[in-house]
Amino acid sequence: MTTTIYTDGACSGNPGPGGWAWAIEGGGFASGFDAQTTNQRMELSAAFEAVKSNPGPLLIVSDSTYVVNCFKNRWHVGWLKRGWKNSKNQPVANRDLWEPFIALVLERKDVQFQWVKGHSGHPMNDFVDELAVEAGKSQTATQQTHSP
Hints:
CATH superfamily: Ribonuclease H-like superfamily/Ribonuclease H
Radius of gyration: 15 Å
Oligomer: single chain
Number of domains: 1
Helix content: 40-55%
Strand content: 25-35%
């Protein structure tokens, strides 16, 4: 059985204080923060932490095309082939997060990604957005192992 996990990142200023969050409908959730970061790093951190924290087949649902398209459009294949250079032959941004995240997803072989439109009234996307915003504002991490 595949577990669906919703993820989101938020940042006040770009760069600025930020937060990330993941949640399972009817299940657990977690959030974290960084004092000085970017929105892309928080989106990426949310998905990476979700995959690290949850065993078994996963469907990561994110409103970040940055995260989803890396895997759906196989950007990572080109990055690896070009020695961590993007299609414009520039260093891949956030390589320090991408490299271990991509390695984990490729090693597991049981993680899929799906995009959801952000701020569109989707209850779980709204929930992880609220968690991420709060983590960024309060600079406090949370974790819950049962229903939100």
